[in-house]
Structures are given as structure tokens and as C-alpha cells.
Amino acid sequence: MNSGPALVSILRQGDTLVASVHTALDDSEMVRFQHDLVRQIGEHRARGIIIDVAALDVIDSFASRTLRSIADIARLRGAVTVIVGIQPDVAFAMVCLGMDMGEVPTALDLEEGLAYLSRLRGLGSSHG
User: Which parts of the chain span the membrane according to its record (predicted)?
Assistant: First the structure.
């Protein structure tokens, strides 16, 4: 069907899924990404989700809402989502437009996102 380069890649690292968005997605591609990622959360029994948006130079209101929805769905399935790599200009524009990621944690980059999930797991294991 689509012979072009992948728009998104979803890789498993242990019980964490790392989804990298490689280029701007239109609304239908964003919805397909959401469905693919949610399906893989169940398939891989993921406990952590990192969505890397570093390649995006725009995050519009639909994309922002969809990312928050993914995080809500993942939470209901037992996984924590972290959004990483929001570019400075994108963050500035989002703030100016009154958009944010709601309750979804964000981190500077993939390394920080993995560290965040690791810290959460450390806290969670003492309550288990």
C-alpha cells in the first residue's frame, strides 16, 4: 500500500514501547498511529510508553488531543505514557496558543523519558 518511508516507528524495549513520530502526521495518520499504539500496548503487555515527537515542528490542537487520548487509554490499560522531544519553538507556540499536554508527563528526550519511567517503577515496587 504505502511504499514511502515509515511515518512512525514503534519499538519494544523490555516492557516499554518507544514510538517515534518521524514526520508531521495528518489527522487520519494520527488516528491510525493511536490505534496501532493502543493495539501494541495489549500485544506486548507494555507498562511504559514513550512517544518521541522531536521530529515535529508543529503540534496542532488535534495532535495534542490525540496524544493526551493515547496517554489516557494507556493509563486505563495499566501503562504510563511520557511525551519526549517537544522542540523549543513548538513548546513556545503551544503555550502561546493555550495548549498543553494536560496531565501527561513530558521529558526533554528519550534518555530522560526512560529515566522517568525507571524512577516510577522504583517507587511502584515498594508499594506492590
Answer: none
